[in-house]
From TrEMBL:
<dbReference type="InterPro" id="IPR016163">
    <property type="entry name" value="Ald_DH_C"/>
</dbReference>
<dbReference type="Pfam" id="PF00171">
    <property type="entry name" value="Aldedh"/>
</dbReference>
<feature type="active site">
    <location>
        <position position="267"/>
    </location>
</feature>
<dbReference type="GO" id="GO:0016620">
    <property type="term" value="F:oxidoreductase activity, acting on the aldehyde or oxo group of donors, NAD or NADP as acceptor"/>
</dbReference>
<keyword id="KW-0560">Oxidoreductase</keyword>
<dbReference type="InterPro" id="IPR029510">
    <property type="entry name" value="Ald_DH_CS_GLU"/>
</dbReference>
<feature type="domain" description="Aldehyde dehydrogenase">
    <location>
        <begin position="21"/>
        <end position="507"/>
    </location>
</feature>
<dbReference type="InterPro" id="IPR015590">
    <property type="entry name" value="Aldehyde_DH_dom"/>
</dbReference>
<protein>
    <submittedName>
        <fullName>Aldehyde dehydrogenase</fullName>
    </submittedName>
</protein>
<comment type="similarity">
    <text>Belongs to the aldehyde dehydrogenase family.</text>
</comment>
<dbReference type="InterPro" id="IPR016161">
    <property type="entry name" value="Ald_DH/histidinol_DH"/>
</dbReference>
<dbReference type="InterPro" id="IPR016162">
    <property type="entry name" value="Ald_DH_N"/>
</dbReference>
Length: 517
């Protein structure tokens, strides 16, 4: 798939074939650790989306009629193929969006394969309810409460064609999770990955060609949000939409989709609090806080613990230990297995993070540590004397940074930065901690570090978030439902409950007393 230049071209995957955009236009994909273009992806528009939806609609009747155990078997073969190519896929992802190998190879790809297997195991567990409405003696049949009554049952059915819009921060993991859920439930899919990082998903489509999957079952179309994304949202052949991304874009998507009354699942942003109480195991809390905002995707994660609420009695002790921990985080080439933290995924996001650093200072926040960006940040965590590849000087680096303020109303405390920039906020009492934690429009996740069992349960009850972690942070698992409260989303993914998002309910009424006696 190479062009005459050194760039790699990745094509759309439609109806079982790799195709460029009909327009012949391409978008460039930049390696964020060097700032150089390394690949091209199709700049697709509504015509390509229409091809993909047509292919998916064509594939739907047979896939829906495929026995669930057969669907599960095909999904398991897909999972095996993912595992067999995990090194290669992880390397593409690390190059394309800068996520470190520790995460892509160590988690996303093998975890994605497990996620597919988990969803495969749910394919034949979809059951409905029976509701027996007894008859009313003497009533005529046909009306409510007829003499013989009725037997009612519910059936869960696939929607049809599911449109899945994926962001750039963890494309492969999301692709495996979402697509396997939709397929297990009997839908066919059209995926619109993010234009900034979709090479890994397009590369992963090669697996489908060797698996003998029906053409059109899975289609992937790259392109920008306004062009390919909106075409998918608007397409009348798409009956279910699943969007993961920012709250602002999610709001636009659901408004558009609502015009056609489509069912829409949203997984959106967050400004998650990570609360450190003074009686907590502070060493564990330091590791958990750093994992939540620095090494976890360089803070480019919807569940990033971006507000660190620290009890005032241990504020200085904790932030000193966090500074020492952050200083040892190795920032650098995401494809080096020793690297802990990679770059920001693309130039636009790099500018946004730098903008928030400047804004924070203008708003009066203080820098407790970090703050350097670009090549100046690159040496963070490297042992003294380590030579840095000169090519990395053009990368989008931001070092682990901790700002502090007492005002949770600042924009840096309310808006999603999506980078390795945390804000430390002191609090005095437990009640104050929860009040600050909940003082946000978001409600995706929250963490609390405590040795008190009672306090842990109080925190779980008090924190307004779809996920609450106690003495851990940023753990996700395909078996555990995950979704947002407030403006962080409207539907859970993962777990048995998550599969339900790919199914629509039908109620059947069978009136008795009309058949042969
Ligand atoms: P970011 O996290 O950079 O803010 P978005 O939430 O805007 O990203 O993007 C997440 C996904 O939504 C990407 O695949 C993007 O292309 C897509 N997208 C962006 N704008 C729209 C839109 N108006 N309609 C549909 N999809 C969109």
């Amino acid at each position: 798939m190479s062009t005459p230049s050194a760039l790699t071209d990745y094509c759309n995957f439609i109806a079982g074939e790799f195709r460029p955009a009909r327009s012949g236009e391409w978008l460039e994909s930049v390696d964020p650790s060097t700032g150089r273009v390394w690949a091209r992806v199709p700049a697709s528009d509504a015509t390509d989306i229409d091809d993909a939806v047509t292919a998916a609609r064509h594939a739907f009747p047979d896939w829906r009629a495929t026995p669930p155990l057969r669907r599960a078997a095909l999904l398991r073969r897909w999972a095996d193929a993912v595992l067999a190519r995990s090194g290669e896929l992880a390397a593409v992802e690390s190059r394309d969006n800068g996520r470190v190998l520790k995460e892509t190879q160590g988690g996303d790809v093998p975890g994605g394969a497990m996620n597919i297997q988990y969803n495969a195991s749910l394919a034949d567990k979809v059951t409905g309810d029976t509701i027996h409405l007894g008859g009313v003696p003497g009533s005529p049949p046909g009306g409510a409460g007829g003499a013989a009554g009725s037997v009612n049952f519910t059936v869960y059915e696939p929607y049809g064609v599911a449109g899945i819009i994926i962001p750039w921060n963890a494309p492969l993991a999301m692709f495996f999770a979402k697509v396997s859920g939709a397929l297990a439930a009997g839908n066919t899919v059209v995926v619109k990955p993010a234009e900034q990082a979709c090479c890994s998903i397009l590369a992963a489509c090669e697996l489908f060609t060797s698996l003998d999957l029906p053409p059109g079952l899975v289609n992937v179309v790259s392109g920008t949000g306004p062009s390919a994304g909106e075409a998918l949202v608007d397409h009348p052949g798409v009956t279910k939409l699943d969007f993961t991304g920012s709250t602002a874009t999610g709001r636009r998507v659901i408004q558009r989709a609502s015009a056609n009354l489509k069912n829409v699942s949203l997984e959106l942003g967050g400004k998650s609090p990570n609360i450190v109480f003074d009686e907590a195991d502070l060493d564990a809390a330091v590791t958990g806080v750093a994992g939540g905002i620095y090494t976890g995707g360089a803070g480019q994660s919807c569940v990033a613990g971006s507000r660190v609420l620290i009890q005032d009695t241990v504020f200085d002790t904790f932030t000193d230990r966090l500074r020492a921990h952050a200083a040892a985080i190795r920032l650098g080439d995401p494809r080096d297995p020793a690297t802990d933290m990679g770059p920001i995924a693309f130039a636009g996001q790099f500018d946004k993070v730098r903008g928030y650093l400047e804004l924070g200072l203008r708003e009066g926040a203080k820098v407790l540590f970090g703050g350097r960006t670009g090549a100046d940040a690159l040496h963070a965590g490297a042992p003294p004397g380590t030579a840095t590849d000169p090519a990395l000087a053009g990368g989008y680096w931001v070092e682990p940074t901790l700002l502090t303020t007492t005002d949770n109303g600042l924009r840096i405390c309310q808006e999603e930065i999506f980078g390795p920039v945390a804000v430390a906020i002191p609090f005095a009492t437990e009640e104050e901690a929860y009040a600050i934690a909940n003082d946000t429009d978001y409600g995706l996740a929250a963490g609390a570090w405590t040795r008190s069992l009672d306090r842990a349960h109080r925190a779980i009850a008090a924190l307004q978030a779809g996920t609450v972690w106690i003495n851990t942070y940023r753990r996700l698992h395909w078996a555990v439902p995950f979704g947002g409260h407030k403006q962080s989303g409207n539907a859970p993914s993962n777990g048995v409950r998550g599969l339900g998002e790919w199914l629509t309910l039908k109620a059947a009424w069978v009136e008795l007393g009309h058949g042969d006696s």
